[in-house]
Amino acid sequence: MILPRLPELHQMIRGLDSHATMAAKPNYSDGDYELDNESDILDSSAELEPEAVPPRFRPRRRTTTEIERIHYRFVNERVVNDITVEVFYKPHTLTVLALLCAFLLYAAFSSDETVTSENVYDGLKAAGALFLVISALAFPNGPFIRPHPIIWRITFGLSVLYVLLLQFTLFQSFSDVKAVLRWLDPERLSKETLEEKEYAVNCSDVSFERIWSHMDIFAVGHFMGWTMKSMLIRHSIICWYISIAWEITEVVFTHVLPNFEECWWDAIFLDVILCNGLGILAGIQICKVFEMRQFRWESIKNIKTTRGKFKRAVLQFTPESWVRHDWFNSYALRRSLAIYTFVMIWLFSELNTFFLKHIFAIDTAHPFVFFRIILIGLISAPSIRQFYLYATDPKVKRLGMQCWVYCAVCALEAANCVKFGRDQLPALQVTYITIWIVFLAVGTLCCCWLSVWWVRQFKQVKEVSVDGKKHECYLDSSHENLGAISDDVRKRRRRLQISDSDYN
């Protein structure tokens, strides 16, 4: 059984009380209030002073759907409070429009129009740049506001462009796609087949020199990658589970991609225990440092010393707040299904990396592979936060848009792999894939059970009596531990005169 969390029971207790008292001096806004007796007020409005009208209004009772929609905006479309350098947060839309028009006109009239391919290339670049400018101005902030919301708006714009590119590629032929790649890089993207390094060679030769020879740039990539992944997932047991699940996934798909085959000691000791394990430990330790830190953001205008101003400017590139991820609560079935879905999408995203570069013969060292990994990493950061809120917050009923786009990216990448790889790759062994899917389902349940057992074993629960019944509850819970998000949400609830009891 998945344990309920302590703040949830507090909410249950608070739900038995009456609604919270409204603020003494409300902040009126359109749509927040309705008239008690509209006809009486209309008849006597000419005789009343302006100050006497507000008492005749009463707060409008919001429906559950309205409250959930407002809460969704609070946690997925963050608003920057306490702005320190105002010039960086003003729209400047007219200035941007003037500069953009001037640049595009100059680029259009100064280009050489004799080469059709160059015209198409320049036109696509200009269209992409224009779309990213629109993204920076019009798209929602998302769940992150550090170092600046414009970065995450542009990230969202890049993810939308990538989705459109994948959708367009899906309707092309393999020869046309290769022709475009060959045109972009005639030297490194013109190969028909990819020559990949073989790892499952002479596995019986286990020596220090042999092991050391495997400690290449990919080992560093494993360590740095899992450091970042564990900082995004923020749960050591789930990280270890995904790390082991990926090695099993490589074994299952070896009949399709021989490059997945590697020596047992390489997979177990070098990948899972050494590189991945150290990366997970490093990432979790960084998370603990951020969890213990108190985030107190002071305006740069209030800092007197030059050293203090410089330090505050550097801190702008650190998180605005840090949310502890508690993936388990009393919603046992829903939470287990959420973890299973999360792991499957994660593994499919990893598989797409290897299948795409193998099908289109793109070497691992090519910048395309590097920039795609960077893009997926940027997209996954807000996507994981939005999926986590969807899975853990009972008031969030739909996925955030960035997470939705990320799921579309994974699906379209997989569709391109199936379409263009069906003539190149061996047929999938349905039996292996079925066993793999069932194994991951069982593994997810074991992961959930192990997490609950770990919490009970190390006394991170407390017995609380509710209505005469004893319940074991988590001492820590991300539902109430949303960092600055919770403070932001509470302030905006009070401004809209929404009581916490409206959620119960």
From TrEMBL:
<feature type="transmembrane region" description="Helical">
    <location>
        <begin position="120"/>
        <end position="138"/>
    </location>
</feature>
<keyword id="KW-0472">Membrane</keyword>
<keyword id="KW-0444">Lipid biosynthesis</keyword>
<comment type="pathway">
    <text>Phospholipid metabolism; phosphatidylserine biosynthesis.</text>
</comment>
<feature type="transmembrane region" description="Helical">
    <location>
        <begin position="433"/>
        <end position="455"/>
    </location>
</feature>
<dbReference type="GO" id="GO:0005789">
    <property type="term" value="C:endoplasmic reticulum membrane"/>
</dbReference>
<keyword id="KW-1133">Transmembrane helix</keyword>
<comment type="function">
    <text>Catalyzes a base-exchange reaction in which the polar head group of phosphatidylethanolamine (PE) is replaced by L-serine.</text>
</comment>
<feature type="transmembrane region" description="Helical">
    <location>
        <begin position="238"/>
        <end position="258"/>
    </location>
</feature>
<keyword id="KW-0594">Phospholipid biosynthesis</keyword>
<comment type="similarity">
    <text>Belongs to the phosphatidyl serine synthase family.</text>
</comment>
<feature type="transmembrane region" description="Helical">
    <location>
        <begin position="368"/>
        <end position="391"/>
    </location>
</feature>
<feature type="transmembrane region" description="Helical">
    <location>
        <begin position="337"/>
        <end position="356"/>
    </location>
</feature>
<comment type="pathway">
    <text>Lipid metabolism.</text>
</comment>
<dbReference type="Pfam" id="PF03034">
    <property type="entry name" value="PSS"/>
</dbReference>
<feature type="transmembrane region" description="Helical">
    <location>
        <begin position="403"/>
        <end position="421"/>
    </location>
</feature>
<dbReference type="GO" id="GO:0106245">
    <property type="term" value="F:L-serine-phosphatidylethanolamine phosphatidyltransferase activity"/>
</dbReference>
<feature type="transmembrane region" description="Helical">
    <location>
        <begin position="264"/>
        <end position="287"/>
    </location>
</feature>
<feature type="transmembrane region" description="Helical">
    <location>
        <begin position="88"/>
        <end position="108"/>
    </location>
</feature>
<dbReference type="GO" id="GO:0006659">
    <property type="term" value="P:phosphatidylserine biosynthetic process"/>
</dbReference>
<keyword id="KW-0256">Endoplasmic reticulum</keyword>
<keyword id="KW-0443">Lipid metabolism</keyword>
<keyword id="KW-0808">Transferase</keyword>
<keyword id="KW-1208">Phospholipid metabolism</keyword>
<keyword id="KW-0812">Transmembrane</keyword>
<dbReference type="InterPro" id="IPR004277">
    <property type="entry name" value="PSS"/>
</dbReference>
<feature type="transmembrane region" description="Helical">
    <location>
        <begin position="150"/>
        <end position="171"/>
    </location>
</feature>
<protein>
    <recommendedName>
        <fullName>Phosphatidylserine synthase</fullName>
        <ecNumber>2.7.8.29</ecNumber>
    </recommendedName>
</protein>
